[in-house]
Amino acid sequence: xxxxxxxxxxxxxxxTMCRFTVDRPLYPDQSFHFGSSEAAEMSPxxxxxxxxxxxxAVLITDNRLTVTKHGPTPWPEVGQQVxxxxxxxxxxxxxxxxxxxxxxxxxxxxxxxxxxxxxxxxVNPSVASHGGVVRLLxxxxxxxxxxxxxxxxxxxxxxxxxxxxxxxxxxxEIPQVGEIMDTTDHASGNNPYYAPSKK
Amino acid sequence: MPRLLLMLPxxxxxxxxxxxxxxxxxxxxxxxxxxxxxxxxxxxxxxLTLPFSSPDACAGPVREFHEDYPIDAVxxxxxxxxxxxxxxxxxxxxPHNNPAAVAVAGDKRRAREQLSADGVACPGFEWRxxxxxxxxxxxVFGFPAVVKPLSLSASRGVIRVDDPAEMMEAVSRLESIxxxxxxxxxxxxxxxxxxxxxxxxxxxxxxxxGQLEVLAVFDKPEPLEGPYxxxxxxxxxxxxxxxxxxxxxxxxxxxxASLGLTxxxxxxxxxxxxxxxxxxxxxxxxxxxxxxxxxxxGTGLRLEDILLHHALGDRAPLPERVESxxxxxxLPVEKGGTLLRVDGVEMAEEVAGVERVAITAHPxxxxxxxxxxxxxxxxxxxxxxxxxxxxxxxxxxxxxxTLVFKDG
Lengths: 199, 408
Fold this sequence. Notes:
A: about 200 residues, B: about 400 residues, alpha+beta
């Protein structure tokens, strides 16, 4: 029975993201991030979610789904469709993520080395010219945690550097990478661009 | 997928809000800044360097870039990029303000001259040079008056004067402020304006094909009587009567028409007097700082969503502002110094109605009180059933906050 499945939606600080909590496990004790519909081929649940207009990324974690959407469709409307997709998926009895998918992801150590290599070779030499640095903090599953330091910390353009540059470099070389999280405390940076300039 | 060119000066507060809105719109994104990006080599389609301070010189690089990566829309909503944005949009054949009109709007002297010539209600004014004997003489309209720089924003350098002695002192002070400001020159001179008494309001609007749509009217409930005019609280919806708000909107429309502004964001400030609204400022840009975060439209759209959709050619009816009251306080700087930290943020965020406290100043940053001013150390956002409730929440939160300076 999926009629009695209880799902709650919780908007996140980032307006493009909403977290849905289900009253039963979807992917017990595991998580997987899908950054595109192509990447979701081996996830029956994520495929259903990407069929919803505007859905751009899906993170499945135990009994939670974090959905990122683009486009103007409001969350209440998208949320209803997400709820219906979850119920439809649970009714099939299929796994949320096929077991063989995990085999396509490089082991965490390898992933960590490859991301670190991109940062060392392609990112940090040039970011250093602006007094900054991008550090790899951790890799969990296919999620990458970075921290921006030096001149990047608190810089008004740090978001641009990360999203338009660092993310694109990592994803183009390692498409299996899921979410890339900036853990920087920009409020305590000492080089924000939006400090006024004086002569 | 359409490509959006975002004109982002490196010192803007707006980067996260605009990037998030671009993501929601589902566009390919190119970010133009006046400084080279350190990671431009990783994504050639994603970055462009433009000389924002020389707007006409932006056209060539954009034309070349457009040949490789066709651009479908351009958005620039900071005052330092609006003229360059108009030049670029014209170059690409996209809806745009006339760059000459934007240049006039950005020069307080020329804007006053234009508005006055067209009979738009605005303060009496005189343009003065810093050099020469007339610099601090009593204006023909007498006192109280206001001295004002031609190009600074956020009321920096704006000083009320009530007699000749105050006038002398204020002009000297203003000269020092202008002389110390990158991008300004004392050669520009300054304005002396008649002081207009009455409550001040701000309008956030969107021009589409020459028609101004008022998105929000903000009250500024703190009395702005001088001697300095540091912004503090913006509250919406306005508590003015509907009729008065309509008059304010109409005056804003007249001012836009007078200046020749036809497309994109408009931020205006007006005083409401017994004889009707008077235009204090009108700018072809969006509300400054992080203040746009106070606005929500329709099902939760942000101001940046509205502006990006407009640039992308969406001409559907604009959604209404959400009905709840909302407000933002720009944290005042009562004394200057080297900031060590801001205490009480968690307590302030606990205040009922307060949505968030954003501290934008960083430890070690020099903060100055107005009129030298800037930057605001942070912003408090609140929502509630009524504007009164929101105003109380903002004041209560502010009382919890303490700016701690190095020198005590």
